[in-house]
Amino acid sequence: MPRISVLDMPDVPNGQLPPHIQLQKTRVFCEKNAPTHTDYVQHHGSYTSMDVHESLIENFHNNFKVNVIRLTSDVIEFDMIGIDASLANAFRRILISELPTMAIEKVYFVNNTSVIPDEVLSHRLGLIPLDADPRLFEYISDESSSSSNERNTIVFKLNVFCKDNDKRISVKSNQLKWLPKGSQLNSETDGGGNEYTSFRCSQDSPEFSHKPIGLKHDDIIIAKLGPGQAIELEAHAVKGIGKTHAKWSPVSTAWYRMLPEIVLMKEIENEMAEKLVKKCPVNVFDIEDLGAGRKKAVVSNPRACTLCRECIRDEGWEERVSLRRVKNHFIFTIESTGSLPPEVLFTEAVKILEEKCEAVIHELSF
Amino acid sequence: MEEGLRENSRSFTFSLVNEDHTLANAVRFTLNQNPMVELCAYSIPHPSDNIVNIAIQSTDKSAKAVFNDGLQDLRSMCQIVRDSFDKSVNDFRAELQESSESKN
């Protein structure tokens, strides 16, 4: 990287950063021992002495870009270009811990003679992803369980047993049966009249949902039953967020990485080029024929780079290959657990950050 | 949600209850981009407290007004992100449909 000495810089600032500082500002350098220039220049006035006044906010509307790379029913991969890590990270954090979903929170056991203790079985039930749109439900208030109604609770029933002389059986998630009309259990203490939920109407009416509520996967093994064992229970699912418990997290993972950028500092030809292509385990480099038996190495697939640094490990290669990351280009991946499609999860996450801002703006107005 | 010592002062520390790095780091970023801001930083005094402190020093506006501007900036950035994301997803879907139609 050519460095410009202070003495060689123009006497009058011309509103441009010297190329090496511009590079340090926009790229992370992944060197042999450690990455360098990993910091972000935060303050707007950092380069005032060079007459550079850049504000990400002013031109954000024009500079910000999103490219969708891959979109399936439960995974989205997209590029966010022209944004700061603080915002990308805010979206990631919200996706993991602040977007609500529905998950089983209370389990009422009628009978459990299986080898799995009640509390372990309840925990397993809690982790099962439900196929229910959390936007149709409200949070349950803390006051009492009697406030469970069709707007905040989903009820499932599990009633399985293994006959005396049968083989052992597996209890799978598809044996949980949805009860759209609410709990069927009666409280013993109150003389049998008091139910655990008070649904005013059935949840399978069209105003609730266009599709019946169920489980995302039918083949999750919940328990195993030996001959003569039985489980009878009712599971109540409520709305919650991942901050409270990971079972409410709507994503299995949400992560981002900065776009890799690989620059060949010198022409790499012939055997050296072939050596370089062989060094890379993910085939970032390719060979270009120059004619007359000459070959040249080129960077054909920088996106695949995992930054293993294998290509710069040997003596002398660090000067030939420069591994960098683009600081304002994020490759964002969201894997949904199934309550909402991944693209909806992201827009909901952005909405939550907006709501946070609005809440504080509202507080400030007093 | 917020508290401080003097109203209308140029330097002020806001304590936000029930917030964390998610909002504080994002709003610190937008505030630092604002030419009115001399200094802006945040800290979480103790990990088990539900509080984040955001300190702001401004050049001439009151810190409260600057904080408000920073939040408005963040909100409008979010709206831009949401709009361009939705547009890209729709474009991607349309493209996918087009290519599958041309195959048939």
UniProtKB/TrEMBL annotation, chain A:
InterPro entries: DNA-dir_RNA_pol_30-40kDasu_CS, DNA-dir_RNA_pol_insert, DNA-dir_RNA_pol_RpoA/D/Rpb3, RBP11-like, RNAP_Rpo3/Rpb3/RPAC1, RNAPI/III_AC40, RNApol_insert_sf, Rpo3/RPB3_RNA_Pol_subunit
Subcellular location: Nucleus
Keywords: DNA-directed RNA polymerase, Nucleus, Transcription
CDD domains reported in the protein's UniProt record: RNAP_I_II_AC40
GO cellular component terms given for this protein: RNA polymerase I complex; RNA polymerase III complex
Main location class: nucleus
GO molecular function: DNA binding; DNA-directed RNA polymerase activity; protein dimerization activity
Database matches in Gene3D superfamilies: DNA-directed RNA polymerase, insert domain, RNA polymerase, RBP11-like subunit
GO BP: DNA-templated transcription
Residue ranges of every copy of the DNA-directed RNA polymerase RpoA/D/Rpb3-type domain listed in the record: 75-363
Family assignment from sequence similarity: Belongs to the archaeal Rpo3/eukaryotic RPB3 RNA polymerase subunit family.
Protein name: DNA-directed RNA polymerases I and III subunit RPAC1
Organism annotation: Zostera marina (Eelgrass)
From TrEMBL, chain B:
Keywords assigned by UniProt, alphabetized: DNA-directed RNA polymerase, Nucleus, Transcription
CDD domains named in the record: RNAP_I_III_AC19 (cd07029)
GO molecular function, one term: DNA binding
InterPro entries to which the protein is assigned, alphabetical: RBP11-like, RBP11-like_dimer, RNA_pol_Rpb11_13-16kDa_CS, RNAP_AC19, Rpo11-like
DNA-directed RNA polymerase RBP11-like dimerisation domain residues: 12-83
GO cellular component: RNA polymerase I complex; RNA polymerase III complex
Protein location: Nucleus
BP-aspect Gene Ontology terms: transcription by RNA polymerase III; transcription elongation by RNA polymerase I
SUPFAM superfamilies: RBP11-like subunits of RNA polymerase
Family affiliation: Belongs to the archaeal Rpo11/eukaryotic RPB11/RPC19 RNA polymerase subunit family.
Cross-referenced PANTHER family: DNA-DIRECTED RNA POLYMERASE I,II,III, DNA-DIRECTED RNA POLYMERASES I AND III SUBUNIT RPAC2
Protein name, as recorded: DNA-directed RNA polymerase
